[in-house]
Write a structure and sequence with these properties.
alpha+beta; 6 helices; about 45% helix; RNA-binding
């Protein structure tokens, strides 16, 4: 199983567990926020964003990663991104950039959402399609 399929399956499983009005956004933070998220006091920063917005904040895989995941209702994720932008504005500027948005519709009659809407940046579309369309074909075949 390719890495793209494994990542797509992991995201689908995570979202199925919290089906409904769930949204997940991956945002790239500006350099001015690196210390706030990865330095001393990073737990305070995350707690502040979570308490002010109601969304869950998850850090990127590696310390140098500037991508933060926000998860919750559409409103709480938007509020979390706004709080992060306010922090950036106070700490030297730069924009909090949305890299990926996934919106989860309410569950259908089977208890699972009838579809999932995933916004993919243009630069990553080739990864989803795969060489000769292999990755997208496998995703379509495994959607049972």
């Amino acid at each position: 199983m390719s890495q793209a399929i494994a990542q797509a399956a992991a995201v689908a499983a995570r979202l199925a567990a919290t089906a409904g009005n769930t949204c997940e956004e991956q945002v790239r933070i500006p350099d001015c926020l690196m210390n706030a998220f990865y330095g001393r006091g990073s737990n305070d920063t995350i707690s502040h964003i979570q308490s002010d917005s109601g969304c869950k904040v998850q850090m990127g895989q590696s310390e140098g990663d500037r991508v933060i995941t926000l998860r919750g209702s559409r409103e709480s994720v938007t509020k979390g991104r706004e709080v992060m932008q306010q922090l950036a504005n106070r700490n030297g500027g730069g924009n909090v950039e949305v890299v990926l948005t996934i919106n989860m519709p309410p569950p259908g009659p089977t208890g699972y959402p009838p579809y999932q809407e995933i916004m993919i940046p243009g630069t990553k579309v080739g990864l989803v399609i795969g060489k000769g369309g292999d990755t997208i074909k496998q995703l379509q075949e495994n959607r049972s």
